[in-house]
Amino acid sequence: MSSTPETTYNAFFCPHCEATLNLGHGPIIKMTGKLDAATFSVTTDVFLPSGLGVYGRATATNVELREGARVEFSCPDCGAPLSRSEDDELAQVGMRDQEDRVFLVSFNKCYGKQSTFVIDPEARQVESQFGDDAESFREDLDKRMNFFGS
Fold first, then answer.
1. 85 part of a folded domain
2. What's the domain range around 115?
3. What is the pLDDT of residues 35-66, one digit of tens each?
4. I need a labelling partner for 8 at 20 to 30 A (CA). Which of 38, 40, 45, 143 fits?
5. Total domains present in the chain
6. Integer Cα distance of 136 and 133 in angstroms
7. Is residue 72 part of a domain?
8. Cα distance between residue 127 and residue 114, in whole Å
9. Is the pTM for the entire model greater than 0.90?
10. Residue 64 falls within a domain, yes or no?
11. How far apart are CA 61 and CA 116, in angstroms?
């Protein structure tokens, strides 16, 4: 009898309340997403792939995201916003890798933009980046992380 290797994923969590965002450390991260416009506002569950550099999304309702739509993410558990305080263009969650090291993962809030950054919170530096649009955000992200000379 052959056995298939078990796939393990990084564990993602809310940086505010530490609630797990990918239950069972599975391939999908669940967050709450809010879309605002001048005449309406809609809040829905948003599901993103947990693989770093893997892009896509699904929503729990019939909400169709179009290129350029800006989603404000929040924790489905505590409701805290998942925005980087230094950069309004990026959302941020915590990540524990398979060696139990903790990182912050920042990603673009604009649907269609592909930029993801893995940040070492102690060293205040980007460990790795993913996505076709990452370089356009990298210089600004580095400046904001080092604002206080850290």
1. yes
2. 11-145
3. 888 888 889 899 898 888 888 877 777 777 78
4. 45
5. 1
6. 6
7. yes
8. 17
9. no
10. yes
11. 25
Q: Residue 92: helix, strand or coil by DSSP? A: strand
CB-based contact 48:29 (threshold 8 Å): yes
**Could you tell me which of 82, 85, 72 has the C-alpha nearest to residue 14?**
82
**The amino acid at 21:** L
Q: What is the mean pLDDT of the chain?
A: 85
53-87 burial: b if 16+ Cβ within 10 Å, else e: eebeeebeeebebeeeebbbbbbebeeeebbbeeb
Find out whether 95 and 18 touch, Cβ atoms under 8 Å.
no
Cβ atoms < 10 Å from Cβ of 135:
10
Q: Which two tokens stand for residue 67?
A: 């290129």
3-state secondary structure of 102: strand
Q: Are 81 and 71 in contact (CB under 8 A)?
A: no
Distance CA 29, CA 129 (A): 19
Which region, left, alpha or beta, applies to residue 120 given φ > 0 means left and ψ of -120 to 50 means alpha? beta
- Token code pair at residue 66: 């179009």
